[in-house]
Amino acid sequence: MGYAPAQFKLGICYELGLTHFPMDPSLSFAWYKRAAMQGHADAELAVSGWYLTGHPQGLLQSEPLAYEWASKAAHRGWSKAEYTLGHYHEVGIGVPQDLDIAKQWYIKAASQGNERALLRLLVGHVGLDVDYGHLKDALLDQNHENPYLVHQLAQFHELREYGLVPDEDAAFELYAASAQENYAPAQYRLGACYEFGILGAPRDPVQAVHWYRRGADNGHVEALLALAGFYLDGSAAPEAEQSDQEAFRYVKMAAQRGVPKAEYITGFFLEYGLGVEKNIKEAKQWYHIACAKGVESAERRLMDLDRLTAAAGATAPFA
Question: Which of 40, 66, 106, 215 could be cross-linked to 220 through a Cys-Cys bond (beta carbons 3.0 to 4.6 Å apart)?
């Protein structure tokens, strides 16, 4: 039978004309079909796609066969195929149109992290009449595997997108659930909720620092900068005692990840010796990096430093 993943790759090569392979729909379909016959879900969906469109080298278009092969992949639990099968049922491709079945497949796909399925469920004009409570529960049930999608749903609530009514409690609940599963953007947003008292959260600097720190530990750059701010002013003691050194450490971590604002602030700390030994030469290096990315404050600091250097040179005594 051959090795199915390699057969699937060959199908891609012939479909797209990659590397030294000619673009050949017949060979593409043939290799996809060989992999699909062994239960390769990607290949099954690719075969479905070829049957949906047909090709000029002899493959007749067949919506029933397109549906049959997509169904095989969907029943293996692959979210992309589940989304595709939902689309087939919604539009009526290979089967009679059935919005209830379409909705079921979209919910299955969305609960596995398929954003296209989630958006399809949320847009108001497709006539799916989604039970939102069911959808939300399905996503939360899969939160351990896909905290990203729970975070997305929280954003949709907060930003009032896709017809969702604004619901601060739901947004906070979803951010918190995603954050608990170690999703850094949700951890940062939860920190902001506690810092500023938004989405129904109380102002709580200690909780804010806790969640910013978890986000920062996962490399979230805005969380790194938020932590630096708390260390700079000490407003979250004892969770974050005032420390210029810690503030500089977190700012520099963000700068080393290429964040222009952090690059400028790192230069500022170095220029004035905040939490680090004063070093004008290194400060100017960071200002130059930030300036090249369009940070106007960095450009002004460089101009000011150049004027100070020129003035110092003009007033220096002759040797």
Answer: 215
